[in-house]
Write a structure and sequence with these properties.
Largest sheet: 2 strands, antiparallel
Structural class: mainly alpha
CATH architecture of one domain: Orthogonal Bundle
CATH superfamily of one domain: lambda repressor-like DNA-binding domains
Distance between the termini: 63 Å
Strand content: under 5%
Order of helices and strands: HHHHHHHEE
Number of helices: 7
Length: 143
Amino acid sequence: MASSKVGSIGEYIREQRTRAKISLRQLADVSGISNPYLSQIERGLRKPSAEILQQIAKGLRISAEALYVQAGILEDREADTDVQAAVRADLLLTERQKQVLLDIYASFLKENEATGVLATEPAGAAGAEPQAPHEQNGKDEVG
């Protein structure tokens, strides 16, 4: 896109806010940004800083990285897997903990790629099927 992303970041924030079913005022309150300033961002009149985008992302409970990409601060990269997205979205982890987990996950993916292991193969012997809990008369055995 040749034009500035200032307007598109505002549209993206509005879209995310609408999806989250929260008002502009509610987002302003939870993100700690003034209502008029947030409104100006959404209308494409102001270009938010990375810090403001981070506050908005926290208020929307989305990845700050997604906002950075929309704003043109970061380059777009390959889409996250479900695991990566879950780690990035976890509010109980510090940024350092998230990065360590993502690094470990990436090393497992790289190892599997190098050894030719497919993610769909069960752990253990090739072709082994997972065993169901022992059933008796159609009900799980309680023991």
